[in-house]
Structure formats: C-alpha cells, structure tokens
Design brief:
By secondary structure, the chain is of the alpha/beta class. The protein has three domains: 57 residues; 81 residues; 134 residues. The chain is built from six helices and 19 strands. A six-stranded parallel sheet has the order 1-4-8-12-16-19. A five-stranded parallel sheet has the order 3-7-11-15-18, with no helix packed on it. The radius of gyration is 33 Å and the shape is elongated. The relative contact order is 0.06. InterPro entries: 5peptide_repeat (IPR001646). It holds the Pfam family Pentapeptide_3. Keywords: Membrane, Transmembrane, Transmembrane helix.
Length: 298
C-alpha cells in the first residue's frame, strides 16, 4: 500500500508539473515544480491520515475485544463464587453480576437468568409461614438458613434494581423465570418486564406488583401467596394466569388492566380491594365466580 501511494504521489507530481508548464509556458519552471511537489505531498498526507485512522480503529477493536474477554472472565468467576460456602462471598458475587449487567448491557438478561436460577434453588426457613405451620413446635433459629435468607433477599433486590422503570429508556423487555421459587416480600412495582413465569412459586409477606408493566404473559399458575398481593395499576398486556393459585391474604386490584387472556380457574381471594379491568377481546378461562373483574360483571 505504501509503494502504491509513493507511485501515485510521484505520478501526481509529474502530471501536475507538466500540466502547469503546458498551460502557462511563461511561468517560471520552479513554480510549476513546487506546485507539483505540493500535490504529491498532499497524496502522501492523505495516506498518512488514512493509516492513522486505520490504526485507531484497530486499537479500538482490540480494546473492545479485550473488554469483552474481561467481562466474560468476570461473569464466569462470579457464577462460580455463587457456589461458595461463605454467604459473604455469595453476596459479593451477586453484586459483581449486577455491576456487570449495568456496565455491559448484553449481559443483563443473562445475569437476570442467573439471579432467578439462584432463587429457584430449594430453600427452607423455620421463620417462613408455611414452614412454621408444618411444625407444632415453635420455630427455632437456624443460623445457616438465616444467612442464606439474606443472600436470597439480596438477589431479589438486585433483580428489582436491574429492571427498567420510570424514565429509564432501556427498550428491552426482560424475562423472569421464578418457577418454584420461594420469595419473600418480592417487589416489582413500577418495573417494565417481558414475561414473568412463577408457576408453583411461594410468595411470603407482601408481594408488590403495583404499576407493573408486563409486555408478555404473567404465569402465576399454582402459586401460593401467603400474604398480601398488591397489583394496583398493573398492566398485563400479554395476559395473566391465576390457575390453581392460592391466596392467603388481601388482593389489591384497583386500576389493574389485563389484555389477551386471563385465567381465573381458582377460588377468588377472600378479600379483594378495587377492580381489575379486562380490555375488549380478552379471553377468559375458568369460572370467574366472585372475582372483581370489571368486564366480567353481569
């Protein structure tokens, strides 16, 4: 490439000089040669600029590649540390994954998948309602379960923090798979998500889904809600399923809307606050019974 550029510079110099001599024969030959040399020098200067830009782009590509490699190594190391026996190490690994999701957007869905997978792991704690009810004796403290409980609460909080809300312009709809998970004071209020799968999940304490914006279906099939379920002003654009779900506390429905489908194949909650509105064309499955759904009112 350099040889071609030099030849091109020489050719431009010769041609420019010859043209000037032919067009203005009375002009000094030295002026024609100087102008021709400047033209040739301009060609070399353009080549130097192109070469510098090419080197810059190569360096940027190398830097990006190295950054991706570092991110991959951090991700693998953090996932490995989630199996560590020390709860402090597991909490640190969760925060490292959350930081990676924030700094490297391509990892966000993957990190959410890992956090959800951690919450799907079997977990029992004597202080949780159904665990306490399973025993006639007063539940005793379990230090190991207490520490794991804190790790899981950290994972829940990080999931909430990673999801877009408010003025966050992230256009992606992130999916959550919490099938069979045991969750405590779970919060998704105001978050924008894609699909939420929580089949067979057990929700303890207050579950906050108010102002949730779900673009895809929300599957709460066989879920158990031991405490209050808050769905005020939630928008279920892709539909919601309560098939065989169990409600042990109050369910707040005021301002909630559902489209596509709603599966009410289960007993209605004992206490409902407000009414959920089913949009036109929403498919209803099961027997509505005493559910407070506006479009189903006789």
């Amino acid at each position: 490439m350099l040889l071609v550029t030099l030849l091109a510079a020489i050719l431009v110099t010769v041609v420019t000089t010859a043209v000037l001599v032919l067009v203005e024969p009375a002009a000094p030959r030295s002026e024609a040669v100087r102008t021709g040399a400047l033209s040739g020098g301009a060609v070399i200067a353009l080549y130097a600029l192109w070469l510098n830009d090419r080197r810059r782009r190569i360096e940027e590509a190398r830097h990006d590649l190295e950054g991706e490699k570092v991110a991959d190594e951090r991700f693998a190391r953090s996932v490995e540390l989630l199996g560590n026996d020390a709860d402090q190490v597991r909490v640190g690994a969760l925060h490292a994954l959350a930081w990676l999701a924030g700094s490297t957007p391509r990892y966000k869905q993957t990190v959410l998948d890992v956090l959800c997978a951690y919450l799907r792991r079997p977990f029992e704690h004597p202080g949780l309602p159904d665990a306490a009810e399973a025993s006639d004796a007063t539940p005793q403290r379990d230090p190991v379960a207490d520490r794991e409980r804190e790790v899981r609460l950290t994972a829940q909080r990080l999931i909430t923090d990673l999801l877009p809300w408010g003025e966050d312009r992230d256009p992606r709809a992130y999916h959550l798979d919490l099938t069979g998970a045991r969750l405590e004071h779970f919060r998704l209020e105001g978050r924008r998500i894609g699909r939420l799968t929580a089949r067979g999940a057990r929700f303890h304490g207050i579950t906050r889904l108010s102002q949730l914006d779900a673009a895809k279906p929300v599957w709460l099939t066989d879920a158990v809600f031991s405490g209050r379920l808050d769905m005020r002003d939630a928008r279920f654009h892709g539909g919601v399923s309560f098939r065989r779900a169990t409600f042990g506390g109050e369910v707040a429905l005021a301002g909630a809307t559902v489209a596509s489908f709603v599966d009410l194949t289960t007993a209605a909650p004992g206490t409902q606050v407000g009414t959920m509105r089913a949009e036109d064309g929403t498919r209803v499955e099961g027997a509505p019974g005493r559910w407070a759904v506006e479009a189903l009112a006789p």
